[in-house]
Amino acid sequence: MSFFRTPLPEGTPHVQILLTNDDGIYAPGLAAMERELQDLGDVSVVAPATEQSGVGHSITFLSPLICKEVYEGERRRGWAVEGSPADCVKLGISEFCPRRPDLVISGINGGLNAGINVLYSGTVAAAIEGAFFGITSIAVSLEYDEHAKFDQAARLARDVIEQILAKRREESQLYNVNIPTVAVEHPRGVHVVPMGVARYGEDFIKRLDPKGRTYYWATGDPPPPAEAPETDLAALQRGFVTITPLQYDMTQASLLAEMQGWGLKLPAGQSPQ
Q1: Per-residue pLDDT tens for 87-142?
Q2: Contact at 8 Å (CB) between 60 and 84?
Q3: Which residues are registered as beta bridge partners of 192?
């Protein structure tokens, strides 16, 4: 099966793409990505009904997931889910896609998801959820700008996605793609880099509300420090599009092997109750 825009042989099923995000189904980045992905296959949109930025990999199981079809004129745009990005991927795969997706795309997010923000990102979590299902999944984010050029960024993202898929392995893969604003009109290239793990964004502004109650507002400062070797944050600051292959198995394999030789045991005389 080809992921590309060359004509498919007669009888070959089109690539099925599940598209989602964490900015909500009406976000301009989602619409721009949908238009570009239509050149690659059949796109099913399943996205949150409202913005879900920063929800990470949360899922909904204590309340029902309300879903409704969304239309753009006479065209059915997709499904809006009153839940998280991970919920959307679960429902998209099990309920709304006409068949199991070949590819899951999450984005374009309005704002970078690089460095430790990957751990908080609903955009990346949606891609991780797709990877859980054994489907190659890609998160795409654009640096925040009030006048973000999502159409140009989506064209750039599609080209990068095509190149990734051309090199894909037999097993499913998980990727995180970030686009700095400057790269939209003046692309410098693509760097494949690790995720930065430096701590940052720990400052808060302390204020009082009109009733005299104290509240705190996160500022995102200080900026992340430079890391060596180059990470996604450093490459983005220099104007490069970044790609980071991710994994969701959080086991520290080297320590696991050491710990298995520790001979850990429970105190003598203890028995199960």
Answers
A1: 999 999 999 999 999 999 999 999 999 999 999 999 999 999 999 999 999 999 99
A2: yes
A3: 243
Core vs surface per residue 214-240: b (16+ CB within 10 A) or e? eeeeeeeeeebeebeebbbbbbbeeeb
Record the tokens describing residue 149, joined without a space: 């050029």
- DSSP E strands in 173-260: the ranges are 174-179, 190-192, 204-208, 214-218, 241-245
- Whole-number Å distance between alpha carbons of 145 and 44: 27
Measured in degrees and rounded to the nearest 5, phi and psi for residue 70 equal -115, 135
For residue 164, the 8-state DSSP code is H
Reference 245, options 133, 155, 167; nearest CA is 167
Q: CA nearest 141: which of 55, 61, 23, 37?
A: 23
Q: Determine the 3-state secondary structure of 133 from DSSP.
A: coil
Give CA–CA dist 131/268, Å, rounded: 43
Rounded distance between C-alpha atoms, residue 76 and residue 40, angstroms: 19
Distance CA 194, CA 69 (A): 38
Q: Which CATH superfamily is domain 16-199+226-248 in?
A: Survival protein SurE-like phosphatase/nucleotidase (3.40.1210.10)
> Which residue positions in the chain have pLDDT lower than 70?
1-13, 270-273
CB-side neighbour CA atoms (13 Å) of 165: 22
| Domain positions in the chain | 16-199+226-248
Distance CA 189, CA 180 (A): 11
The token pair that represents 26 in the structure block: 């009406």
Q: How many alpha carbons fall within 13 Å on the CB side of residue 31? A: 12
- pLDDT reported for residue 224: 78
Neighbouring CB atoms inside 10 A of 179's CB total 28
